[in-house]
């Protein structure tokens, strides 16, 4: 302790030495600036400018106009052509990029330079919008990486040194000045400040921190200096886990998108085959010229390409992931958004999920001749020297109630029963109530114990010597938002289950208070897995919400596993498909609603895309559909489905 105090006393010299850890940039420009910085958008706009310039001088300077059209083709189509050729060479497959480039070149070959340039421009614009939607969707989670500080101020051997965060170890003492980013997870050793935890929990209001409180890497310190004792190495902080989640979220593709991508290759080959048949067969069968046949085939190639269909899913999923991240829900990929939309049951682990996970004193019954404050102070004196959760609950209640803190001597654990110690020379014991059955206690005590246990409480007896001084009851209390969270899920038509290893009486009490539909108690970890599987067979898609290592198998067995980010174990977070960073279980209902909204938008996009393609193909064969109209109808539909997906960013 003296060593730490000595290190703190040297910290006042830090400002004079000019030491300060690096601060990451956090500039957030307006969305249109971000859009204009997108290289694909710059290429699309450049192509559009060239197209307009070429069209403007086409009547007077035809050669110059063609050169400008070629420039428009090159600027707008180069990236897409490169992608298409790579797919063809490496994967031996055709994609929509190559179809569009072929259609544009075909239009130019028969003298429709402007139509081809327009196709390139709108196709490049739709691609840029899709790219922008991806960047925008990733921004709310991937920007966390920019919050990772590179250095920290460490107090060691009476000096202050600036070190890389990778060198920090548990037990190191750090100084975090006002306005700086927390370099590591830790506990506040000294100081007071309000810390902005929005980057981790999504909370909009800074949280006050003082000695003993936990802080997280990547959060921003407020106006006060804090001395932080490191509790986690750099690669094991909550912040590092979030970054890992971001990387997973950016790489995982939903099943529907994988199907569309597989379908794209088959469909593209079919479109090319039909185009060739049209060019060769129409002059022979219908007596039209080769030029007219080629034109109609190019229109078909444009309108039949599945651009809008391909863009129907991922912008929607990424937008949904982004909006969820802003509310403290991190999805590890679009596949889990799809599965969340189909949720039929949400199964909660009890401890630490529906409840706080920390026992609290609920009842204190004093025997005749004892008052509650005296009883509490003597019990706390003995229990304060124990690390058992029930002992900590009694000590915490004494402090909160303002009971006099007394020193206990000769404190010893009684194996299998409780604890004892001397307070002011007298022996005090706190432990199991089985002594009530052994010592012919007053039946009133036994009856009171039974009443408390029926309420799901753990009851301990407080004894002075061999005399019963009172009973103290404790219970893990429900989270403040638990009742609302359950009710909101039920309003969505979702069954709510509770899985717990606790005894049935305790589970029934919690279930009654929260209003859950199904209760399963006394479950071991493997039994939780069996119960989750049973729920899936009976109801369909199941979301499992848990926070502990023992919940990890059940999280993996569920359709969607959801881990608690703040209080959850590292194992639960790694296994989970979704992480609830702020532990606010009310957001689960919102996530289901948002996922269902995303599913509806995907269906809208797919139906719209197929309808437009069908109408344009029919128009090409039934009447003389002009290439410019085909281009506008086809690429316009692609832009519309992307914009429809971007609505989920709200």
UniProtKB/TrEMBL annotation:
<keyword id="KW-0479">Metal-binding</keyword>
<keyword id="KW-1278">Translocase</keyword>
<feature type="transmembrane region" description="Helical">
    <location>
        <begin position="294"/>
        <end position="318"/>
    </location>
</feature>
<keyword id="KW-0813">Transport</keyword>
<dbReference type="InterPro" id="IPR036412">
    <property type="entry name" value="HAD-like_sf"/>
</dbReference>
<dbReference type="InterPro" id="IPR018303">
    <property type="entry name" value="ATPase_P-typ_P_site"/>
</dbReference>
<keyword id="KW-0406">Ion transport</keyword>
<comment type="similarity">
    <text>Belongs to the cation transport ATPase (P-type) (TC 3.A.3) family. Type IB subfamily.</text>
</comment>
<keyword id="KW-0597">Phosphoprotein</keyword>
<dbReference type="InterPro" id="IPR023214">
    <property type="entry name" value="HAD_sf"/>
</dbReference>
<dbReference type="InterPro" id="IPR044492">
    <property type="entry name" value="P_typ_ATPase_HD_dom"/>
</dbReference>
<feature type="transmembrane region" description="Helical">
    <location>
        <begin position="266"/>
        <end position="288"/>
    </location>
</feature>
<keyword id="KW-0067">ATP-binding</keyword>
<keyword id="KW-0812">Transmembrane</keyword>
<dbReference type="InterPro" id="IPR059000">
    <property type="entry name" value="ATPase_P-type_domA"/>
</dbReference>
<dbReference type="InterPro" id="IPR023299">
    <property type="entry name" value="ATPase_P-typ_cyto_dom_N"/>
</dbReference>
<dbReference type="InterPro" id="IPR027256">
    <property type="entry name" value="P-typ_ATPase_IB"/>
</dbReference>
<keyword id="KW-1003">Cell membrane</keyword>
<dbReference type="Pfam" id="PF00122">
    <property type="entry name" value="E1-E2_ATPase"/>
</dbReference>
<feature type="domain" description="P-type ATPase A">
    <location>
        <begin position="147"/>
        <end position="247"/>
    </location>
</feature>
<keyword id="KW-0547">Nucleotide-binding</keyword>
<dbReference type="InterPro" id="IPR023298">
    <property type="entry name" value="ATPase_P-typ_TM_dom_sf"/>
</dbReference>
<feature type="region of interest" description="Disordered">
    <location>
        <begin position="8"/>
        <end position="31"/>
    </location>
</feature>
<feature type="transmembrane region" description="Helical">
    <location>
        <begin position="606"/>
        <end position="623"/>
    </location>
</feature>
<dbReference type="InterPro" id="IPR008250">
    <property type="entry name" value="ATPase_P-typ_transduc_dom_A_sf"/>
</dbReference>
<dbReference type="InterPro" id="IPR051949">
    <property type="entry name" value="Cation_Transport_ATPase"/>
</dbReference>
<feature type="transmembrane region" description="Helical">
    <location>
        <begin position="96"/>
        <end position="129"/>
    </location>
</feature>
<dbReference type="InterPro" id="IPR001757">
    <property type="entry name" value="P_typ_ATPase"/>
</dbReference>
<keyword id="KW-0472">Membrane</keyword>
<keyword id="KW-0460">Magnesium</keyword>
<protein>
    <submittedName>
        <fullName>Heavy metal translocating P-type ATPase</fullName>
    </submittedName>
</protein>
<dbReference type="Pfam" id="PF00702">
    <property type="entry name" value="Hydrolase"/>
</dbReference>
<feature type="transmembrane region" description="Helical">
    <location>
        <begin position="43"/>
        <end position="76"/>
    </location>
</feature>
<keyword id="KW-1133">Transmembrane helix</keyword>
């Amino acid at each position: 302790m003296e060593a730490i105090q000595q290190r703190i006393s040297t910290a006042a010299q830090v400002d004079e030495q000019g030491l300060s850890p690096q601060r990451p940039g956090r500039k957030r420009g307006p969305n249109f600036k971000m859009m204009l910085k997108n290289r694909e958008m710059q290429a699309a706009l450049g192509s559009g400018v060239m197209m307009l310039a070429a069209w403007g001088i086409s009547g007077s300077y035809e050669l110059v106009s063609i050169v400008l059209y070629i420039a428009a083709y090159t600027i707008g189509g180069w990236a897409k052509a490169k992608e298409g050729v790579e797919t063809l060479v490496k994967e031996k497959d055709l994609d929509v990029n190559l179809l569009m480039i072929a259609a544009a070149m075909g239009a130019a070959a028969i003298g429709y330079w402007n139509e081809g340039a327009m196709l390139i421009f709108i196709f490049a614009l739709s691609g840029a919008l899709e790219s922008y939607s991806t960047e925008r969707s990733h921004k709310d989670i991937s920007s966390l990486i920019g919050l990772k500080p590179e250095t920290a101020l460490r107090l060691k051997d009476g000096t202050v040194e600036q070190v890389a965060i990778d060198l920090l170890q548990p037990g190191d003492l750090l100084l975090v000045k006002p306005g700086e980013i927390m370099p590591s997870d830790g506990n506040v050793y000294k100081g007071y400040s309000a810390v902005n935890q929005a980057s981790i929990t999504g909370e909009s209001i800074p949280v006050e921190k003082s000695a003993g409180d936990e802080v997280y890497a990547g959060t921003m310190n407020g106006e006060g200096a804090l001395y932080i004792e490191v509790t986690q190495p750099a690669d094991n902080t909550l912040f590092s886990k979030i970054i890992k989640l971001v990387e997973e979220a950016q790489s995982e593709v939903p099943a529907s998108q994988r199907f569309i991508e597989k379908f794209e290759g088959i469909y593209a080959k079919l479109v090319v085959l039909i185009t060739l048949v049209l060019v060769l067969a129409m002059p022979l069968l219908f007596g039209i010229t080769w030029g007219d046949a080629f034109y109609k085939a190019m229109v078909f190639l444009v309108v039949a390409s599945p651009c809008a269909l391909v863009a129907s899913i991922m912008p929607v999923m990424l937008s949904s992931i982004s909006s969820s991240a802003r509310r403290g829900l991190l999805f590890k990929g679009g596949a889990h958004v799809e599965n969340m939309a189909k949720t039929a049951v949400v199964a909660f682990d009890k401890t630490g999920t529906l409840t706080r996970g920390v026992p609290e004193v609920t009842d204190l019954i004093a025997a005749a001749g004892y008052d509650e404050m005296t009883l509490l102070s003597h019990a706390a004196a003995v229990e304060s020297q124990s690390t058992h959760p029930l002992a900590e609950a009694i000590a915490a209640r004494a402090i909160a109630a303002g009971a006099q803190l007394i020193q206990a001597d000769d404190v010893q654990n009684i194996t299998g029963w409780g604890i004892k110690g001397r307070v002011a020379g007298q022996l005090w014991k706190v432990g199991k109530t089985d002594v009530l059955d052994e010592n012919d206690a007053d039946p009133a005590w036994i009856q009171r114990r039974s009443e408390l246990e029926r309420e799901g409480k753990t009851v301990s007896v407080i004894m002075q010597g061999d005399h019963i001084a009172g009973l103290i009851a404790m219970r893990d209390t429900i989270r403040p938002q638990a009742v609302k969270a359950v009710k909101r899920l039920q309003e969505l038509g979702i069954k709510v289950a509770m899985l717990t290893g606790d005894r049935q009486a305790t589970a029934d009490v919690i279930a009654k208070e929260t209003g859950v539909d199904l209760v399963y108690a006394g479950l071991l970890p493997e039994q939780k897995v069996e119960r989750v599987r049973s729920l899936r067979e009976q109801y369909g898609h199941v979301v499992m919400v848990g926070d502990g290592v023992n919940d990890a198998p059940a999280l993996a067995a569920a359709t969607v596993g959801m881990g608690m980010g703040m209080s959850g174990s590292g194992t639960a977070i790694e296994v989970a498909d979704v992480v609830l960073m702020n532990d606010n279980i009310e957001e689960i209902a919102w996530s289901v609603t948002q996922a269902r909204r995303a599913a509806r938008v995907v269906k809208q996009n797919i139906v719209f895309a197929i309808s437009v393609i069908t109408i344009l193909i029919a128009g090409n064969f039934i009447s003389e559909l002009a290439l410019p109209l085909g281009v506008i109808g086809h690429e316009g539909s692609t832009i519309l489905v992307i914009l429809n997906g971007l609505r989920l960013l709200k």
